[in-house]
Amino acid sequence: MRKTSLLRFLLLSFVIFPVWSCQGQESVPEVQATKPDAESFGRLVHELSGKPGYFDTDNLISNESSYLHVIPQLESLDIRGGAYLGVGPDQNFSYIAHIKPSVAFIVDIRRDNMLTHLLYKALFELSDNRLDFLGHLFARQLDESLASKSTEWDVEQLMNAIEKAPLLEKQQTALHQKIKEKVISFGVDVSEKDLATIHRFHNEFITQGPDLRFTSHNRSPRAYYPTYEQLMSEEDIHGESASYLSNENLFQFLKQLHESDKIIPLMGNFAAPEAIPAIGAYLKKRGERVTSFYTSNVEYYLMYQGLYPAYLENLKQLPLAENSVIIRSYFNRFRSTHPLTVPGYASTQLLQYMETMIAHPNASYSDLIFEHFVPRE
After folding, report:
1. Global pTM value
2. 15 in helix, strand or coil?
3. Which of 76, 217, 263, 362 lies at 20 to 30 Å from 183 by C-alpha?
C-alpha cells in the first residue's frame, strides 16, 4: 500500500471548459462555466484572509501517508458538494477531487502556503493534462507523442515518464517567466519577495524531483516521511489508487475549479476572529453549506496553546450541512494505539461529525482522537 506588490487584471468571461471523458472512468462534473475577473479573485483572497503567522516548515508536500484512507468513508457517508475547507498543501486536492465541492478554501497560518497554492494554480492553468502538469512542476522535457497516451496512464506510468525525461535547460527560464506572469494575472497582491519565494519553491520541486520530502526548519527529518511520488501513489483503505493524479478525470475537475477561481488560498489562524468567520459570512450570503473541513493535526496545537475554545466558536460561524465532517490526522508514530490505524503507517486519518464536535466543547485531544471519531463500516 505504498503508492507551494504586483497586480494585473485578467478579464476573462464566459470561458467554456471541456468535459474530459476517459474510458472506464466517471465523467467530470461540470463546474460553473464562467471565470470571474482577476480583480474579484484577488480581492476575495485579501478580504477573507486573516493575519499571517509562523510555522517551522515550508510544508511543500504532506507527511501524512494515510491521507487517502478515508476516501471510501467520505463516499459512504455521502460527503459531497457544498463548500470545502482545508489546510496545508496539495493533499487538499485529493479530498477536493473526490468530494467535488462547488468552492474550496485553503486556510493556513503561513503566507508561504498561500504562495504555494498560487504556484499550483498557475501550474494547473498552464497544463492540459496530468503529464503536462508534472512536466511543468518538475521542469521536464516531455515527448509530445506521450500526451494522448498519458490520459489513460496510472500514477506509476506517469512517474516513470517524468523520471526518464531530461530537465529543461534553456526553456526553464521561459517556464519560470510563464508562471510569474500567470501568478501576477490572478490579481492577488504579491510583492517581488513573494514572487521570489514562489520561484524558490518551484526550484525545490525541480531540484528534488519526485523524491521531494516534507522538511522542517527546527526538527530532524524523519526517514518515514513519504516522497512526492509515494504520496501520489498511495491508496485508499480498500487498496484503490485515489490521489488527484490517479486518473485524468480527477485532475480535470481540479483544473476546472482552478480556472473558475473556486479554489481560494487564504491566510489565517483557525482560532482567530478573521478568516473562518469571514468564510462563514461569505457562504451564508451565497446559500452554501460546509460539507467538509480537513484540519490535519492543527487541533493538537490549538489544544496545546489554549486556543481550542476560540476555534470551536469559529466553527459555529460556519453554515454546516447536516452530515458535515472534520477530516483529521493523528500521528500514531507506527504504534497500533487506534482501532483505525493501518499497520506500517505513522499517521491515521479520522473523520468526526462537526455537529458532535461542537456539542462537546470540553473534549480533550484524546477524546477527539479515541472517542468521537466515526467508525469505518
Report:
1. 0.89
2. coil
3. 217
